[in-house]
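Re: beginner question about structure tokens

> Can someone show what the tokenized structure looks like for a real chain? I only ever see the sequence side.

Sure, here's an example I had lying around. Input first:
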Amino acid sequence: MDFAFNKANLGLGNVYFAKQDYPKAISYYKKVLESDPKNEKTPTNMGMAYLKMGEHELALQAFDLAIKNGVKGPQVFFNKGVCYLKTGDKRSAIGCFTSSYAEDSKYIKSILERAKCYASLEKYNEALQDLNLYIRSNPNDPEAYYVRGVTKLTMNDYNGAVFDLTTCLDIKPDYMSAAENLAMAHYQLKNYPQALNLYSKILAMDDSNAKHFMQRGLCYLALDDYKNALKDFDKSIQIESTLAEAYFNRANVHKKMDLDRKACDDLKMSIKHGYKQGLAYENILCD
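And the corresponding structure tokens:
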């Protein structure tokens, strides 16, 4: 084993890694491992290069070799967890993030990633436990409040969702996904003016989303402001002409405005575009 040779090739690999020439970096890392198969540092670097290239299975093999060769610490397990996430294997990712945190409890970002995995697997209580732990150590991280808020929203804890998503926006005012979910939470709580205000802010930043117009239209409808509700449903359908739910909601507005023919036409359009719930209203709106 030539230590000078390995050091030079590892150094060259790192140079090309820094230049984002990952295939070239890997070629040098392989030379090191051919000379010294039990090298600890090189498999980790090679795994990161494969990860950057999107070669997740090869990255996993490299990280496994690093662990086999005696690499310690939380990062290699964390990176392995990220690889599993990229392949869609969230359960294996949870195991890796757990190992990462076990290596070093200060490596708290492992807990945030594990929480996301739990939430995506609908293990909401486990997700909340991890998020509470993470937020105690990182009380100013907007993403953590966002994930916890969305988790609470999914669990129908609307007041809890409002608190977390509001906190998220206090920290990061331009977090559009947080604003959208906060609007949904307010709507579920029948806080229609607050929800309407949020949708208006969202639309001021991006007026290309048909569902946002539809949701604001529902707020106007709940407030008996049929004129503005109709405008928003019109705009929603203008943007996305196959949005079945928008036709159904506009049918309701037309019915409330005693425009029965238009109500029936919209109901039929909603059914045509797949809104099966509309079938139950045919006798009401098309009598």
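Each token stands for a local structural state, so reading them left to right follows the chain. Residues 3-18 form the longest helix (16 residues).
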